Amino acid sequence: MELLEGNGILSAFQAVIALSVLKVWLINFNKPTRWRGGNAMSMREEFEAYGLPDWVLYMVGFLKVAFSLGLLAGIWFPELVVTSATGIAFFMFFAILMHIKLKDPIVKSIPAITFLTLSILIVLLFE
Asked: Which residue blocks in 30-106 are alpha helix, DSSP H?
């Protein structure tokens, strides 16, 4: 099965991470989700709950979208994969710390934990 050969499973991880992050930042930006920190109903409210200024919101959003596009493009341009996965891992690590800062229940960190884990696997296993 091709998915299990070479970097096939890693390409699937790349697509899952990238499409999920793009959905959060481009489609669900102003929508409430059960994963938002604190009692936030939008991405802006979530960053306010974390005590972060607007410029951080825009910088994080730009970089997460760029790294997600890099993961998708990396399916065809492998030189983009490790940098993009490392960038996503960095932001997911800090997302977990922000949830801890707010004393959110662990369930709110599940997406960040999942994407951090998958990103680390990509970095460690990519050929």
From this structure: 43-49, 54-73, 81-101
